[in-house]
Amino acid sequence: MSADGYGTHLSIAVVVATLGRPQLVEQMHRLMSEQTCPPDLLVFSVVSDADLPSGYADRSDVRVLRGTKGLCAQRNRALDSVGGAYDLVVFYDDDFVPSPDSIVRIKEFFGSHPDVVGATGNVIRDGINGPGLSFDQAKDLIAGHELRRFSPNCIVTSLQGLYGCNMVYRASAIGMSRFDERLRLYGWQEDVDFASSLSSRGRIVKTFAFSGVHQGVKYGRTSGVRLGYSQVINPIYLVRKGTMSFGFAARLIVRNVVANHVRTLKPEPWIDRAGRLRGNWLAARDLLLGRLAPERIETL
After folding, report:
1. Pick from 49, 297, 35: nearest CA to 189
2. What is the rounded distance in angstroms from the CA atom of residue 135 to the CA atom of residue 123?
3. Least packed by Cβ within 10 Å: which of 16, 181, 206, 247?
4. C-alpha triplet 204, 210, 213: angle, nearest 5°
């Protein structure tokens, strides 16, 4: 179905929070310029000019924001900057490769579903679960996927939270809500927390309407110890906060802790299993001592 009459009037701001990966900034900029319907605004939220390719600091076709390090803080700077000037806010990880028609399909989807306030698109392949995917591999996967046919407005299921590599919200639903900056650095599970905090304002869903590939680039990520700590502390913190169910948190913690114990015996080359395991146990110790502070990862 054509997007005509189904959201073409909606304006879109794309937000990319990034740190220490300037080549991915350039890649995302190119991907957005090649969209069949480019976004109205592209925002790169960085810490310093060292996070940008040469010549990007003063470009007129992107908005560059600089400030405190941390995924939540960087996204919040973008939300403060964008405000309510655009109808939809798209959050992409810097290593996400959206299909060339993603922006127009996002418009179509939200134009057709006024009850939806947040949606995550179809991740064709997620390199985060393996050694990662090259840009060429991502493009080939997208090209193959485009030969398949899905209902462009299909809602797959309602979700408790969205997947942060590829999620879209109505700015009117976001309002003054912001990402929780106690979830420092990589902000593990910040996407679930933020989506859950907006769930009373409309539906939070997964859809096939727009898609892409998450490369899962390994460099520039949080250390194994810090991630392992967050794997235990952050879900419990969010349960206490009320934005994650106990059952969801328990499954998340058990799955990751068991995987870290089992795979430490024969770890994947791209994962610091020993570091994650150490972080899991540091978190367990802190919980026994009555400490529940996600921001402690900055001292590990």
Report:
1. 297
2. 15
3. 247
4. 105
Q: What is the DSSP letter of 211?
A: E
Place of tokens 């009555």: 290
Measured between alpha carbons, how far is residue 182 from residues 241, 249, 294 in Å?
A: 12, 18, 6
Bridge partners for 234 per DSSP: none
Mean pLDDT for all residues in the chain: 91
Q: What is the pLDDT of residue 135?
A: 95
Residue carrying the six token digits 């992409």: 92
pLDDT at 147 over 60: no
Angle at 39 between CA 135 and CA 41, to 5 degrees: 110
Going by the DSSP 8-state scheme, the letter that residue 220 receives in this structure is: T
The string of pLDDT tens digits covering residues 174-215 is 999 999 999 999 889 999 999 999 999 999 999 989 999 999
Distances, alpha carbon 299 to alpha carbons 73, 150, 296, in Å:
18, 47, 6
**Count of H helices and E strands in the chain?**
9, 9
Cα of 144 vs its chain's centroid, Å:
24
Predicted TM-score (pTM) of this structure: 0.91
- Cα separation values, 84 from 81, 89, 178, 279, 293, Å: 9, 10, 13, 39, 32
Looking at residue 206, its amino acid is K
- Whether residue 47 contacts residue 66, with contact meaning beta carbons closer than 8 Å, is answered with yes
